[in-house]
Specification:
alpha/beta, 4-stranded mixed beta sheet, elongated
Length: about 120
């Protein structure tokens, strides 16, 4: 099993949610691959996105803007995260007594067609 959530996991999870007596009107997936799986399960069930169920993901992978409907997602600064993680690691290698460092990054909500304003 991969260390990240996949499209297949999103499809399976959404299929379970669609079986609920009171199904959700919106889903926020842990990443865009999972959200794409959820979109496919919703479409297969004959439901409309976002009219019946809105979907949002996380990561803003390149595919997110090219699927139908285009996926609302949260963009995070992955290059800056990677650069800073490498910098922190090199600093710890040079000085093992150096205290751990933390950094909070700003994210950006990218609104596309898989969500709609609350009615």
């Amino acid at each position: 099993m991969p260390g990240y959530s996949t499209e297949e996991m999103g499809f399976a999870g959404m299929t379970e949610l669609l079986r609920l007596k009171k199904r959700p009107t919106a889903v926020f997936a842990r990443n865009d691959f999972t959200a794409i799986g959820a979109l496919n399960a919703i479409k297969q069930a004959g439901l409309r996105i976002p009219e019946d169920i809105a979907v949002a993901g996380y990561d803003d992978i390149p595919l997110a803007s090219h699927i139908t409907p285009a996926l609302t997602t949260v963009r995070q600064p992955t290059r800056e995260q990677g650069r800073l993680a490498a910098e922190f690691l090199l600093q710890r290698i040079e000085d093992r007594e150096r205290p751990r460092q933390e950094k909070i990054f700003d994210c950006e909500l990218i609104i596309r067609q898989s969500t709609t304003p609350i009615r």
